[in-house]
Specification:
With 182 residues, the protein is an alpha/beta fold. The chain has 7 helices and 5 strands; from the N terminus they run αααβαβαββαβα. Strands 2-1-3-4-5 form a 5-stranded mixed beta sheet.
Length: 182
């Protein structure tokens, strides 16, 4: 029993790392916990007398996989859009499609959320990039600060047949956007 105690400790650490990987709400933390899980597995293989398997696990599982996940996370960017107003499923789908097409060239993943709050409250939320207020075929884009992506979204929504206007803290007009002056 005493000679298997280190193995039980390593198994306990593996279980803890696995649980933390699953329950964490941050992707970077999940990747790090998964890397730790692989490192603990390699230690377990070493304690079981399989140094060749332990070496393969530490190189591939703990190092290479973790680096690949970290590089992927570095490339993955989310653009958070809140939809407000009396929306309808067809309109929401058209808006989502237009925004997705506009952001595709920038390698951004749109995260569309339906909300009941007003634009000012939504813009104050951390991570909010844009608020789209829809009333039938009319759309008002709200933003707090300058965004290089809004011009593409603006044009894409107009191409979809929406009447689009812009309201932001910079007070730039929709005409400036249409004429490329913003």
């Amino acid at each position: 029993m005493s000679n298997s105690l280190p193995l039980y400790v390593v198994l306990g650490l593996m279980v803890a790392a696995a649980v933390l990987t699953v329950i964490t709400d941050r992707l970077l933390s999940a990747v790090m916990f998964a890397g730790a899980l692989s490192a603990f597995a390699a230690l377990g293989y070493l304690l079981l007398g399989a140094p060749d398997v332990a070496l393969a696990e530490i190189v591939v599982g703990a190092t290479l996989s973790t680096v690949i996940f970290l590089v992927t996370l570095k490339k993955y960017r989310i653009f958070t859009v809140y939809l407000t107003g009396p929306g309808e499923p067809d309109g929401d789908a058209r808006i989502s499609g237009a925004i997705s097409r506009a952001l595709k060239t920038r390698e951004l993943e749109p995260h569309m959320l339906r909300a009941q709050e007003d634009a000012a409250a939504l813009l104050s939320r951390p991570g909010c990039d844009l608020v789209v207020e829809q009333d039938g075929n009319t759309i008002v884009l709200h933003r707090e600060e300058s965004s290089q992506y809004v011009k593409e979204i603006f044009a894409s929504l107009e191409a979809e047949g929406f009447s689009v206007s812009l309201q932001d803290s910079l007070a730039q007009s929709a005409t400036d956007y249409r004429e490329g002056r913003a």
